[in-house]
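re: ur question from earlier - yeah i can do the single chain one, its not a big deal. heres the input i used so u can compare w yours
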Amino acid sequence: MSKNSFSTDPARIRGRRRRWMGEVAWKYPLAVVLIAYAVFPLLYVVSASLNPRGSLAGSSALFSSWSVSNFQALSETSYWTWFLNTLIVSGSAAIGAVLMGAAAAYAFSRFRFKGRRFSLTSLLIVQMFPQTIAFVAVFLLLLSLGEVVPALGINSKLALICVYLGGALGANTFLMYGFFNSIPMEIDESAKIDGASHAQIFWKLIMPLVSPILAVVGLLAFISSFGDFILAKIVLVSEDNWTLAVGMYQWVSNQLTSRWGLFAAGVVLAAVPVLALFLALQRYIVGGLTAGSVKG
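and the output i got, formated as tokens:
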């Protein structure tokens, strides 16, 4: 029997069709459902931001009316001040988390010292508890620090950045630790033979090689601090120091005077920096997340 007869055999064709239906075809409707489930809230928020009525009830019909009045009204509030505060806090927290995590991961990966395993275990245990459960202790600590160093007290953006950095060390260190272990030790040894110091090895050799994980950690730290509400609400008191999460919450906290249209417009604009950062670091993200789990 020729080869072509096998390819045109009705039984084989039906078998391939059933196999395709069982292995592949069901994935397409599932993907459509998941995409619709993910996209609908985004469309609803965009529709609410463009609805001049400024209420969720008026946004039940998507894009029933168009207006940029909500975006224009943002300039009449303290939105752009909050926006700048959020970028300062989130950017500083992201940079600090990257530097602290990289330094700790390099030390644990390259050096052998007494208490190394105990320190790694302690970091693993500490990161199991969310930082928000310690908000009472954080508040009392900042009150005491503020009496000595006002810049590190309540209502200080620097104090909020320090709080974020304190909670980011454990998770970031473990994420980077696995990636640093994937860098061969021979690179360090050859550099030492050429007379390079540990600082030169760290900054000029290791840091360029681990740029994917640096991008991942920076992005995660930025997003985490960008959307945080509880700690920012506790630390920042005055309206001029509020972040976006704290400031925009005031627009919808009262059910009688809720400004959902203004809130939706603010959310749409607030998503721009996160989206831009994600797109800029996209080529690093997949490699950084997968390579860090190869060798721990």
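The chain has a mean pLDDT of 83. not sure if urs matches, ping me
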